[in-house]
Design a protein that fits this description.
By secondary structure, this protein is mainly α. It has 7 helices and no strands. The model has no long low-confidence stretch (mean pLDDT about 90).
Length: about 150
């Protein structure tokens, strides 16, 4: 089942269950997805990979908000944002652990034939091509840099 269908089905289920917080978050996700679809016109609709990227951006934004709300002594707002993060992350693919990420980086370095820090772009492109959905590129960058002796 593609993400668009999952969003719609989950929204219907949360509305039937009377879960107002989950329903609100799902409506926000669908709204953001429709904005992306409108922006992509007249071309094709964003694929699942683009929607996963959109979800990651939404989760990152909420994590930053949680940090600010915590600093501002607003725990009720931070809790609301954390609940939204939980709903958003339910649609994201499982992330690689550190050992799997290190193995993927080593394989990408070997595949790209990288020998120095100048080849980092090639390695990152190889990682993104193979593991874009399950790899946190922000964590992969320093690992690639270390693997290349940078």
């Amino acid at each position: 089942m593609d993400l668009r269908t999952r969003f719609t089905e989950e929204l219907k289920a949360s509305m039937r269950a009377g879960d107002a917080a989950r329903t609100s978050t799902l409506r926000m996700i669908i709204s953001k997805m429709k904005e992306a679809e409108i922006a992509a016109r007249p071309g094709p609709l964003p694929d699942d990979a683009a929607l996963v990227g959109m979800l990651r951006g939404m989760a990152k934004s909420r994590r930053e908000s949680v940090e600010l709300y915590t600093q501002g002594n607003r725990p009720e707002l931070a809790a609301k944002e954390e609940a939204e993060i939980a709903v958003i992350e339910a649609f994201l693919p499982q992330q690689m652990d550190d050992a799997a990420m290190a193995a993927a980086v080593a394989a990408a370095v070997a595949e790209a034939g990288a020998t120095c820090i100048k080849d980092m772009g090639k390695v990152m492109a190889a990682l993104k091509g193979k593991h874009a959905a399950s790899l946190d590129m922000a964590k992969a960058g320093p690992m690639v840099k270390a693997a290349l002796g940078g």
